[in-house]
Amino acid sequence: MTKKTCFLIAFFISTLFIFFSCRTISEHEESLLPPEELDSNWKKNGEGIELLDYFDSKIEYHVVKIDLSKKWEIISFPENDSWNNPKSVKEFAKKNNLEVCVNTNPFERKINQNPFSKTQPIGIIISNSKLISRPNSRYSAIAFYKQGDRTYKAEIFDSQTEIPSTNPDFSFGGFFTILRDNKIYEFKNFKDVRCAAAISDDGRTLYLLAGKNLSYKDTALIFMNLGAETALQFDGGSSTSLVLKNKNLLNGFIRCKVAAGFGLGYFCQ
Q1: How many CA atoms lie within 13 A of 110 on its CB side?
Q2: Residue 239 carries which DSSP code?
Q3: Alpha-carbon distance 235 to 233, whole Å?
Q4: 84 with 133: CB under 8 angstroms?
Q5: What does the CA dihedral 137, 140, 146, 147 come to, rounded to 10 degrees?
Q6: 0.70 exceeded by the pTM?
Q7: Where are the beta strands (DSSP E) in the chain?
Q8: What are the percentages of helix, strand and coil residues in the chain, rounded to 5?
Q9: Which residues face 54 on adjacent strands?
Q10: pLDDT-based confidence at 35, cuts 50/70/90?
Q11: pLDDT, tens digit, for every residue of 188-200?
Q12: Where are the beta strands (DSSP E) in 56-202?
């Protein structure tokens, strides 16, 4: 084989490698949902609740927007810090008459790889001002503070140990903060099933998201286009469960029972 032939083969292989390993991100992928389309996509789903559904050939996601200035009751699980049987988010929502419900913390199983084993959440859980699960400094959390008229205000902390000693009424852990003050935090561009939360309006508006084929950056971009100011990832993959009016919004994958979650129902005096 001549030197010229070897050079041409090497050049051809290098060209193929560059072509298949690098590509320009399109404007559509970068925005995921153009801001000018947002107003017409929200659909009212009850008092203080709106739903946004988005589909294309590669991506699907659903976002529930909740007005926390309405009167809400928050109910969560687990109720203690011992090993507990995992729960179906959908069954928990139905049992407690919740309008919307979502899984939160990552967790470990007592018997690894056994889907029926008891579970224990990783990271902070506070329910009705009671500490259920201890904070993990590596991970983020969302906290809810009850206002005098049974409304709530939410705040996201980059580290669970940043939550003040004057505990919030409720707090739930996740993985990492992905958006703060219109700045997207950088992570590996890994696509998966995602579950996440965000806030805006000084913590008076809550967004909950479940989506397929999304990276952390994709999720942050969606929230930023929706007007959110801060966002964090909950446990995703097969744990992802976002339930609205007793219906899982995201389907098409094997969903496992989980160790932790919370939901909102209308407050009844």
Answers
A1: 11
A2: G
A3: 7
A4: no
A5: 110
A6: yes
A7: 43-44, 49-55, 60-67, 72-77, 100-103, 107-109, 119-121, 125-127, 130-133, 141-146, 152-157, 170-173, 177-180, 183-184, 192-200, 205-214, 230-233, 242-244, 247-248, 261-266
A8: 20, 35, 45
A9: 61
A10: low
A11: 999 999 999 999 9
A12: 60-67, 72-77, 100-103, 107-109, 119-121, 125-127, 130-133, 141-146, 152-157, 170-173, 177-180, 183-184, 192-200
Q: Are strands 60-67 and 49-55 parallel, antiparallel or unpaired?
A: antiparallel
The dihedral region occupied by 22, where left means phi > 0, alpha psi between -120 and 50, and beta the remainder, is: beta
- Write the single-letter amino acid at 7: F
The answer on pLDDT for 5 being more than 50 is: no
Distance CA 131, CA 79 (A): 10
How deeply is 105 buried, as exposed, middle or buried, from its count of CB atoms within 10 A (0-12, 13-18, 19+)? buried
Q: What are phi and psi of 199, to 5 degrees?
A: -135, 160
